[in-house]
Amino acid sequence: MVAATRQAQKATVGIIVPQEDMPFTTGSLEEGGGMTPDVLFNPHGFPSRMTVALLLEMGLGKVALKTGKAGKADAFSKMTPERLQDVLEQAGFQRDGKQRFIDGRTGEHMDMDMYWGPVYYQRLHHFVENKAHARATGPRQIITRQPQEGRQRDGGLKTGEMEGQCFFSHGARAWLQDRLRDSSDLYECPVCITCGQIADPAAEDGTAPAQCRPCGTSESVRRVKLPYSWKMLTQQLMSMHIAPRFGLKEKVDA
Predict the structure, then answer these.
(1) What is the domain range of residue 219?
(2) How many domains does the chain have?
């Protein structure tokens, strides 16, 4: 399940803990003690995303719960972190909005104070059952002959730039060749080992073999396995009067 705040701060539920194991606030009920949070999240998500409005909502919401007054802390209000500190202090809280908590598992005071407060959360319709997808083979694009994109089209599973770099660093050559070539757009291309150019393909009915037009022979033509996208790039360069060459050698069996 995925949830998000008003500030589009989305998060994925990592673990569900019984309420008796969750930390709770210290003090009497009049002081806000015995309060158990519903959600715990890592504060390191705030500096990079700069969702300061979420901190204002938490602090001002805590004051509103105690005083019974409505607050406004959106981007168009005059509520600033400094102003919020004064409001928290007037309501009897610490200026930084933090509070002592007791570990629900051990019953001991926790080493750190936690910033907490009420926040509006909305559930997003992202569930595992809606994202499960797998395929061996399936539809391919007409031009590039690569797998279709997207789960709705029964597309292939993506191997992005970061995943590729991870497998490069681990030396997983066979896996990379299977993912990025064999299961993607593998193509047997007729190439002349004499001049290194792409030869004319053989006739589908087998009446004529693949032949190299510049050399005028079919004896030097070999079938080379390569990505179809690379073959397309080579032909596009040829259309711009750039003549790439394949450097091939005869395979010698040991």
Answers:
(1) 186-249
(2) 3
If asked whether residues 106 and 32 sit together in one domain, one would say yes
11-66 pLDDT, tens digit each: 777 888 998 899 998 877 766 678 888 888 888 878 888 888 888 888 888 888 88
Same domain assignment for residues 48 and 75: yes
Assign residue 159 a region (left: φ > 0; alpha: ψ between -120 and 50; beta: otherwise): beta
CATH of the domain at 204: 3.90.1800.10
> Which alpha helices (H) appear in the chain, and where do they start and end?
45-49, 52-67, 81-90, 128-131, 161-170, 173-177, 228-239
Rounded to two decimals, what is the model's pTM? Answer: 0.53
Please report, as a single letter, which amino acid is at residue 216. Answer: G
Indicate if 118 and 7 belong to the same structural domain: yes
Can you point out the beta strands (E) in the chain?
2-5, 10-12, 24-25, 98-99, 101-102, 114-115, 121-124, 186-192, 221-227
What digits encode the pLDDT tens for the residues 195-224? 888 998 887 777 788 888 888 888 889 889
